[in-house]
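Let us work through a complete example step by step.
Step 1: write down the sequence.
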Amino acid sequence: MKYHVLERIFNKHNTPRKFESLELDSSFSILRLSKHVRYFAYYPQEVILERDVRLGFPEFVGLEKVMTSILEEKQELFELEGIYRCNEDKGDFYIDIYIVGEPAENRLIILFEDVTNRMLLEQKLNQRVNETNLLSSTLVAYKNYMDKVITSMADALIVTTKAGKIKRVNKATVELLGYTEEEIIDKQISSIIDDNKFLQKAIQQRSLYKKYFQNVEVVCRTKSRERKLIAFSCSVISKKINGVEDIVYIGRDITAKKRRQQRKSAQYTITNILSESVTVKQAIPQILQAICESLQWDLGELWTPNQYLSVNHKATKNPVLRCVEMWSSRRIEAREFEAITWLTTLSPGVGLAGKVWETLDPVWCEDIANDDICPRYNRVEQSELHAAFGFPIINENRILGVMIFFSREVLFKDEDLLQMMVSIGSQIAQFLQRKQAETALLESEERYRDLFENANDLIQSVNPYGRFLYTNRAWQETLGYSKSELENISVFDIVHPDFRIRCRDVFYRVMSSGNFEQLQAAFMTKDGRTIFLEGNLNCKFIEGKPAAARAIFRDVTARVSAEKALRHQQEQTEKLLLNILPASIANRLKQEPGTIAEYFEDVTVMFADIVGFTQIAASVTAKTLVNLLNQIFSLFDRLSLKYNLEKIKTIGDAYMVVGGLPTRNSNHPQAIAAMALEMQNSIETFNRRNNLNLSIRIGIHTGSVVAGVIGLQKFSYDLWGNTVNIASRMESHGLPGKIQVTEDTFQRLQDKFILEKRGEILVKGKGLMTTYLLLGSRE
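Step 2: predict the structure and record it as tokens.
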């Protein structure tokens, strides 16, 4: 045996190892076996001396040439690695098999080693290696993905160290701030942020290690020193060790959005100031302050050639402009500049205010320090002011004044802001004109005040917004409001809600057209009562523009109440009349007082009578009898309404109804027949419910009648003619519980109803007549 082969086997792994062995002869029979070698066999019972090794170890089947080659010294060693075994004692395990030769003795030595632990370690190691490779690939792919996301982000991204040094920025940051990536990397973030307290919070607050800032608005500076308002969200990437590795800032440029909000707020505030201010002097300081605070300017001025703004000043060829109002922010120190301003006078074309006055256009200066447009600046030893703009206050092409604003920043020209200021200038001019008109109006109306105060009518005057300018004594006494209370409300606040929309329509129509309008409306008194006022409304114009709406009212509450009561009474009378007469006849009677008579060629008349009513009347009280009739005739009334028939009257226990009038129609025989059948059914139902045994006789005839209203008292709608008499005879000569009809009615009903010929009967005054009994409907 070559011992270097065994040395290779034993030194293959740097760990202590244990082997079991077999010795085989050239025919592969077992010559010798170690103590525990059977544990490694697939069939342990076959591992005995002089038995073929392939019976216990099937792995050697097919390796005969290899083993012979080792015996013949053509091959030194053969290895079988990772052979799987399983037995009851050891469970699952793995073995390595080594085959070496002993040519001198013509023997083979087979070594067996349990490599289960090593195999499991190798498997775990391979798994870890695969997982590591997979994770590495994922991280690389994720890094590439995140790089693309960061590059394509519309928001700015800045990554800094704990000390604030910028480590990374994206494309959006570069474009937003105007730096190249090389210029901004390694800079301190404080160099681009105005308010460094934000950075200090991000770094120093311990809570930041667990939380993050979101949408914190910070002013940043671009490379050109332009201000940008950025909404930053900030989070921290922490190491496992105590400390902060990186701080990530995600910022969105909200400069334009914030500017729009500020300007909208400024316009709203100024509109509010102008609507609530009583005088010009009260409004202007508030407007200067609102523009500075809303739009972040530091100093505001008003220049005018008069003592103050006025629409009545006379134009001169060489006006001298003076500053008459000023407001400054606490952020700047401008006392010297302000003192010089109060003493400064300007001619048109001189200085910023003079240039605006001369051109009637707004003017912008990015930095007054580098421009001769503001001579005052050169007289001040030290000033923080830089950007400035001015705009005119113009009324009907006549300039009244100029407003100037200064900022401690250098700012580029903003055309949108200038256009907005021109609009505000127009608003201020309109406010001046309106106040002037209100003043003139008050002066004019003062002459009539004594007359109004002693009038019994209610007199009021309001401005175009509905605010009270004047109310007389009668108005205040009637509605209960004092002058001080009227200063805080408009006329529409005391109009009853039901009349508010209508009153607004009339008010705005008068204010736009100037025409007189009559108005009746309900007003709410101070103590909550509703009173009705009626009168005229007109508008006073000054220089073609509405200045006030004046109204003279009279209290008509008593009249309205009386009219309401009268209408209610009329409605009750109308309702009663419609219960007596058909609606069309009632309307004719109201329009044509006197006798109403009309001929109807084709109608159907029905009489119904309760059989044995006289006997019933004798056995019950009068109240019970009337109650009984009311119930029965109410049933019949509902049926007449159902079939659109006209009830004529009741006479005792007889009920008379007609079809085909006062509105002519062709289906009246069928409607009468259907009602007669349903009347019979109703009586049967009534009997069952009341434990009675009533029956009715019904007679029907079709023909012509005269219908109308006659008399002056207790008049009613009635019918006359032979048709009425015959229908009455059909009822009186009829049979209890039956419906008797004449030949004329039979001819109109036979197609849709079942009728039975009764034969000829003797009718008083008519002789023999053929009659029929109505039994039911063919449908």
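Step 3: interpret the result. The chain is about 40% helix and 30% strand.
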